[in-house]
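WARN  no MSA supplied for this record, continuing single-sequence
INFO  ligand: adenosine-5'-diphosphate
INFO  echoing inputs
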Amino acid sequence: MLDTSVEYLKGVGSQRADLLRQELDISTFEDVLFHFPYRYFDRTRLNKISDINAQSDWVQMIGTLANITEEGEGRRRRLTATFYNDTGRIELVWFQGVQWLKNSLQEHKNYVIFGKVSFFNGQPNIPHPEIEPLHADTVKSGLQPVYPTTEKLKVKGISNRSFAKITQSLFEKISASEIPEILPPYLLSNYNLCHRYAAFKWIHFPDTDEHLQEARHRLKWEELFISQLKIAQLRLQHTRQVGFIFNHVGDHFNHFFREHLPFDLTHAQKRVLREIRTDTTTGKQMNRLVQGDVGSGKTIVALMSMLLALDNGFQACLMAPTEILAQQHFQGISELLRPMNISCALLKGSIKGKERKEILSGLAKGNIQLAVGTHALIEDAVQFANLGLAVIDEQHRFGVGQRARLWQKNTIPPHILVMTATPIPRTLAMTLYGDLDVSVIDELPPGREEIKTVHRNEMSRAGVMQFIKAEIAKGRQAYIVYPLIEESEKLDYESLTVGYEQVRSWFPEHSYRICMVHGRQDAAERERNMQRFVSGEADILVATTVIEVGVNVPNASVMVIESAERFGLSQLHQLRGRVGRGSEQSYCILLTGSQLSKESAQRMNIMTSTSDGFVIAEEDLKMRGPGDLYGTKQSGMIKFKIADIVQDIALVEQTRTAAQQLLSQDSQLTQIQHLPLRTMLSRNKAQSAWSKIS
Ligand code: ADP
Ligand code: MG
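INFO  complex generated
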């Protein structure tokens, strides 16, 4: 029943079904069930307009519209209206969907609005409030669900009220038996959870606030529990997985360590290498995560682990998230290994034809011992003679699925080493990497100066450019980075080229060499430009965030981040990590507009007051929520529908314990009381496999 197409619900039909699928990925009854309200309209909690003051935040009010007016043109086009009731009046303003709002809003009619108060020229107003006609049933009962929706659905007439009706007709069609309990009774009673059917019913149509809270608790618990169960199962699989034994530390490793290592390893690097070495002698497969802040020296740990694999007659590979990074790893590693007799190859998507064929055959025959590459390495066409270790750099760009594909590159899965420069808060780590053992490089190589970070606004631009000149005069190089946000790629590209012209005007061609790197260049051009900067041929690199991860130019001492207010904290930290890689004092300059929102100002403050990646990651998680953090949204690793791993830390821990306990009793979920869970998990698995294909 729950797999039935949403089309067959009363009030939907094929056209609306298409829209729902396109806009919200809702295609079945079950999807409707899981389309949870994100807040509730509570008739008993209305704000008075007369109470609004500078401290006001979100408000909900009932009132009437007057003076609906369109103002401005082009980008400044907006719709304003006066909203009033017997407690006062306030201005509303919309910048988007003006046409549609103009057509659908009516003066002298009653509406419910919900929005955040702001002040403009000392007057309170509400920009972009949610607005809905006041219906009889809105007034009648207690808590009305408010559903997440999109502009397009609203324009097409699927209002919040329509959602409520669709959900209503769903509950008319299904009975409690269609939503059976999946948790065993002892969990329900131990953790005080309400029944599954009741939870779904109450979350959509809460009769009381208590029931709503119970429902949310239960559904969050279930969601986190299932994710923890999957992780615990994966981990169990790992710990049972037979792995290669790297018995000896041989010539490659020792020779490199004694003769060619250009510096002494830090204690942290040594400790992590020992941990890796221990893992590879147990006869079980290693699945280890190495966390270390930017510049902590993860690459050398990766390289020496790969040498260990080579010493034991295996091949090794290193996979990086971008071509530039793969290229740089390849160059660095080839350089370090030059005096030794080791055959390395670089494999990336842009390598085609004969060259690619030769690399593939070299890997398959075992002539190539060490491969560096992008995700081109995990393609099916790539076969190894005997892969013993796979290193994945900057893991947050890759998903669990990609890790799994590396497993399949040998009859016994190779050891897996995952590296991330993004320090990950504990709860997130438990969710993202709960199946891995963790090592931490918590020490920077000696002689590093702390990067001086300052925040400047537009007005100080001349001074900033002067400063860059002074650094270049000392023989250093500088990065100037512009934001690139996918939705407005075109706009950003324009601002980048304008920025480039501006930089040009500050730094005349005859005395400064500037290169530019951005995502619209083809890989070859990008790499050529990047290479000019890496080799020191260019003084200034103007770039978008493509340089964010891993790129290493020790001579670069200045990082200027333009429109810094548009970056998230973790991203700023990553960018800043591109400098301070040599022994010279380095600088990070955050350039912003002069008017900053509270959140942006707070981010600039955090950046100028700490360089501790863990502190920054925690703050980032608090400020942004985990959704878009670390690119996990794209990789679909932690898509929670209702749980929030920042707010629900306690539940993450609780469900983790519960999942581990359950598996320790019944690792294969064969007890009758666990069968529904087993069915659920295998269904999930089938679904995710399917979504990969599509
Ligand atoms: P990340 O952890 O960000 O990947 P890298 O591995 O790129 O850092 O190392 C950053 C820089 O520090 C490189 O230039 C590297 O050669 C250097 N480095 C690494 N380990 C040490 C060390 N123990 N002593 C001195 N320099 C080191
Ligand atoms: Mg790195």
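The domain at 1-38+147-174 is CATH 1.10.150 (DNA polymerase; domain 1).
INFO  checksum written, moving to next record
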